[in-house]
Model the fold of this input.
Amino acid sequence: MPTNRGWAAAGVAGALLLLWAGFGEIELLATAVFLLLAVGGGVAFVRLGAPRLEATRHIYPAQAHEGDTVTVEMDLAAAAASRHLSVEDTVHGLGVARFAAAAAGEGQRLVARYEVYCRARGIYPVGPAEVAVTDPFALSERRAVLGSVDRLTVYPAVEPLSGFPAVRGLDPAVQSTHPTFAPQGGEDFFTLREYQIGDDLRRVHWPSSAKRDELMIKQLEVPWQARALVLLDQRAERYPSAEAFEHAVRGAASVVTHLYQGGFSPELWTGERAPGLRSDSRFTQAMEVLASVQPLPHLDLRQTVTRLRRQGVGGGALVLVTGLPDEGALAAYRVLAQDFARTVVLAAAERPGEALLSFQRAGAVTVSAAPGSLWAPAWRTAMELSWSTASLG
Done:
């Protein structure tokens, strides 16, 4: 169909025809006919040269963090010769990339690359791309959808933390940076279950799979002291600003990553999602949730954690991440803390006030960091103090 330029040319041709009818100048008629022929020829050109391309998209890396830059590569294969091609690929919410090629022969492979700056966490659809072919004067074009929709996952920014909560199975006086249990080899056999997409094939139990004629996975039970639960308080009223909530999300992501790398098996719980207690991809699931989590108004935190406790949570470490601590967060702590050896409370607040003292009196380790500051120094100081307290006790 005609482009904006093509419609403009057709309008000018119509005006010239009216002028020719009024003044009888042959030059006006010739110019009008030329413009109409150019638009008509352009329409015929794009109909005969419809784009026939196959596209494959690759995103490196598929998961990124806030502030990272990812590379998107479009691999195009021409099924038929085409000229005057343009390709448009959209990362919804982050930007649009446009490319042009003068010609593509049949069977020719074209590669287009562009970079995306991940300015905010989230899950962003990528594509589908659009390909357009135009006539030499750009008076007409024909568009077609190209390729599939992919997904770019942008995790929250993560700070490197040091030090772990002193839990059962840890000697804080000796092991100041690493737990004494192994994250991969310390799991005990629990049961067998059917294979699900995404399971680690190294855990296939081949004798049982051969007997049942279907893949069976060895379900492993995580040692009690290696279990950790990170609870993100989503109550919107506890965060005075959007930046305060984002700061809390980054704190939760940093803790989940730190515990996972240090040998724990961390679960994440939010008001919208309860953990799958025997999932083989706890870390990935937690970071996926943190990529898109949002504050919720009017959430009853104590009631929701009471339901959570009925599922049988418990383990070595509980980490409660909140904004301005209040009685609701303290009540949630009292419900859950009895099932964990050590509890850490992170407050994303500039002046958490007396509320944190209530957690300290109840036996929790407290960490506070104002929005815009770093979690790492406050975390390390709190861990060192907790080791001293545990050693004296």
